[in-house]
Amino acid sequence: MSKISTVWPLLAALLLGTSMPAMSQTTDPAPTVQSDTGTAAEVEEQLSLGEDADKDPELGKPYTSEVIGDWEMRCIKTEAETDPCQMYQLLDDGQGAPVAEVSLFRLPGSGKAEAGATIVVPLETSLPQQLTITVDSGKARRYPYAFCNPVGCYARLGLTAQDIAGFKRGNEATITIVPALAQDQQVKLTLSLSGFTASYEKVSVIQQ
To answer: Is the pLDDT of residue 125 over 90?
Structure first.
């Protein structure tokens, strides 16, 4: 039996804003296919004409500039010569179901933290249990959750130069969270560090 309880697919669905299908012991009838109704103009308004997939992103819109190893470079289109970008990775439960997401950015370096990260987990996560991160077989570090909204619950991490050096040396990090409905269980999520160093060199520094 996996450590991931049967409630966790529901929690993953909550993170993504989707709903889980209802379970039934009877065979549901085939759905009725309905044709478009209304005038031709009304139907046409609901149709997408598509767009150029290679066109430049619109001002203020997020986009993925490139993928380095297992990290996406998520950027925002601006009028500046260089768009601000963060490192991004979507984490699954080991069976392909998305559970959490990680975004990482650099800081100016005037404080103890060299970089910051935001980790978003499902709403039905036990907040008092907090969140822990272990790089390879190193010591775990524990972080509190900052807030929750309809998307999920957020942990905001300050990463020291020592933390970043550990990520650069490591192969993978393990993020451990606890479901609120199954607090005797732990959910361990794998954060790949493949491409971390190359991605980190391209991450934008948050301006003061």
So the answer is: yes
Classify domain 8-19+56-200 by CATH architecture.
Sandwich (2.60)
Higher pLDDT, 116 or 206: 116
CA angle 105, 109, 111 (to 5 degrees): 110
CA-to-CA distance for 15 and 99, rounded, in angstroms?
A: 7
Please name which of 16, 17, 175 lies closest in space to residue 104, comparing C-alpha atoms: 175
Going across the sheet that includes 187-192, the strands are 141-143, 131-135, 172-177, 187-192
> Could you tell me the residue ranges of all domains in the chain?
8-19+56-200
In terms of pLDDT, which residue wins out, 30 or 71?
Answer: 71
Q: Where are the beta strands (DSSP E) in the chain?
A: 62-68, 71-76, 85-92, 98-106, 115-121, 131-135, 141-143, 147-149, 152-159, 172-177, 187-192
